[in-house]
Amino acid sequence: MGRGRPRKTDPEEVLDTAMKVFWNKGFEGTSMSDLVCATGMAKPGLYACFGDKESLYKKSLTRYFNNLGTPLLDDLKNSTDALPVVVRRFLESVAYSMLDKNCPSGCFVVNSLVEGSSTHPELETISKEYDQKRRDIFIERFEKAQKNGEIPLNIDAKAYGEFFSAQSLALGVLGRADACKNKLFSFIDVAMTVLPKP
Amino acid sequence: MGRGRPRKTDPEEVLDTAMKVFWNKGFEGTSMSDLVCATGMAKPGLYACFGDKESLYKKSLTRYFNNLGTPLLDDLKNSTDALPVVVRRFLESVAYSMLDKNCPSGCFVVNSLVEGSSTHPELETISKEYDQKRRDIFIERFEKAQKNGEIPLNIDAKAYGEFFSAQSLALGVLGRADACKNKLFSFIDVAMTVLPKP
DNA sequence: ACATTAAAGTACCGATTGGTATTTTAATGT
DNA sequence: ACATTAAAATACCAATCGGTACTTTAATGT
């Protein structure tokens, strides 16, 4: 163990809590006082641990993407399951995430994309980056599907990949507007009809 | 003409400008000073004309919906064109709105839905109300289409209506993330493949 | 001309904002 | 026992926040 006074709060837990506050209220809607109250870490502690508000927000968004986004993307990229299976599983996982009552509503990346603070352009950059990663992996998977013969050669694999990637944006907004499980899942059912038979 | 000193700025123009500022930067991200600078109307004038910040935001969002949303919804509701024609026209109109360089990016209703200020619950209520209106009209149109034989009877008209209504949410986020015309339109092309033949 | 009306403009209010300097507390190494 | 380390806690900063009281200006009605 280190030398000085022991930490009252685990920085990982603090970051997790801060993530949820930003996710729920946005960058502009969250004050440092909000974060102090929610995390239990005093203001100077937050600054010492995570830097200024913008830096803490970036770390929160990165944590969100790594913890909640990356597993879904890895599955989409690496699973050997058929295209309709992996695509549906991705969208349903997003839907389940929308319904998790231990987390704020919606998708933090979508919230951040939409808030798009003009006074803090770096925040827009990072959320666009994560949005792009999802898009790229969807496109890759659809191009692979075309090579595999899972979908016909005469369709625009890139456009289809982008379409399904964008369905998670719609789910993010629907989740933010308190859509129930039935609505989210019947939305996915309809979206899945886009997938052409091979 | 009235009695007192003439207005320097037309309240309609002021509201139009305020709408664009809120649309661009959100409720929490916009300060009264921002609005004073953008509109040219001094702060006491804004309060006298529109009430407090929350009230001005509501009027801005209502103006957005009436001016930009209602015409599209009226067309969707009243046009005698075939289902694929009116649906595509609706989505393409949304896409063109995303590309209008005289307006902020994205859709103000989507932005407002996603920001969803927890400290000002009325703002969430009104954006959800406008979102619901679009959904209702889409569902109506799909139910009508089913009666007309434009789509088969064995599909879930409500789910299809909600699906296409939600595509404008996706377009709103895509527009916010600076999607270009090609991406928006090929997105719509793919979405339109959902429409079943009669 | 002059009172009346209403908007513009200035100056200000307490509260809160993001951020920090300083002190106090609690552990460890010697 | 005591210096050292590091975090907690308090107190504070200038700037900005949403909102308002007050003064000034420019028009109209008589």
Automatic annotation (TrEMBL), chains A, B:
InterPro entries, alphabetized: Homeodomain-like_sf, HTH_TetR, Tet_transcr_reg_TetR-rel_C_sf, TetR_C
Coiled-coil residue spans: none
Pfam families associated with the record: TetR_C_13 (PF16925), TetR_N (PF00440)
DNA-binding region coordinates: 31-50
Any one Gene Ontology molecular-function term assigned to this protein's record: DNA binding
HTH tetR-type domain sequence ranges: 8-68
Top-level taxon in the UniProt lineage: Bacteria
Record's keyword annotation contains Methyltransferase: no
Keywords, ordered alphabetically: DNA-binding, Transcription, Transcription regulation
Keyword DNA-binding: yes
Protein name: HTH tetR-type domain-containing protein
Annotated source species: Kiloniella spongiae
